[in-house]
Write a structure and sequence with these properties.
CATH architecture: Beta Barrel
CATH class: Mainly Beta
Radius of gyration: 23 Å
Number of strands: 10
Number of domains: 1
Distance between the termini: 37 Å
Structural class: mainly beta
Oligomer: single chain
Strand order of the largest sheet: 1-3-4-6-7-8-9-10
Strand content: over 45%
Length: 209
């Protein structure tokens, strides 16, 4: 009888362990994020401007697990920036002007997790992304009107085209079974650091609380 009880306890424990595991079909979420640094900012500063306003890069992403450890996804980023007034040598003259720009980025990404289960209870992972950046920018006069005497922003710095991002070190953990946060550290056109919150999407058939 004792052996039967031990066997039943073993089966119950095994079942709970299996239910606790989160495999590829559970590695799915919608995320909101913000990154505070952009190489575009440094490129503009290198042209002699100061940044008067920078919103940070706000991101919306969808992550979908394909096999254990590996997930793919898409992400959209938006940021706004404006510069101070600066004298620019252009067309054989010196002109006073500033820039205001909206920056849009669309990404395809891949995540590799260093654990093959329990993706959301707390796990390290790495991420890489490849995308396209488009910038809508205006050169402005001191009074805030369109300034046609200064070059387009894309003539000064790289604002439109293919971009990349690598996050060698990243971590995410749950606050509840459905909701949690993440932090990613790396380099590229999203920035050096990104943090955010996620909402899990259930594909496992298990009820998430």
């Amino acid at each position: 009888m004792k052996q039967v009880c031990l066997f039943v306890c073993f089966l119950v424990g095994l079942g709970n362990m299996l239910l606790a595991q989160v495999h590829a079909y559970d590695n799915n979420h919608i995320g909101l994020s913000i990154a505070y640094y952009s190489p575009l900012i440094e490129d503009i500063k290198a042209e002699g401007f100061e940044i008067d306003e920078y919103s940070g890069a706000f991101g919306l992403d969808f992550t979908y697990g394909i096999v254990d450890r590996v997930a793919i996804g898409m992400q959209f980023n938006y940021s706004h920036l404006s510069t101070n007034l600066n004298t620019i040598a252009y067309n054989n003259g010196n002109h006073l002007g500033s820039y205001s720009a909206n920056v849009y980025q669309l990404w395809l990404k891949g995540d590799y997790h260093y654990s093959d289960d329990n993706f959301y209870r707390g796990t390290f992972y790495s991420s890489a992304a490849f995308g396209y950046m488009y910038t809508s920018a205006n050169g402005l006069t001191e009074a805030g009107f369109i300034n046609k005497n200064i070059p387009l922003l894309r003539e000064l710095v790289y604002t439109n085209g293919l971009v990349y991002q690598v996050y060698p070190i990243a971590y995410k953990g749950q606050i509840t079974q459905r909701f949690g946060g993440f932090l990613e550290l790396g380099y590229g056109y999203q920035g050096f650091a990104k943090m955010g919150l996620y909402l899990r999407i259930d594909r496992s058939g298990k009820k998430l609380i």
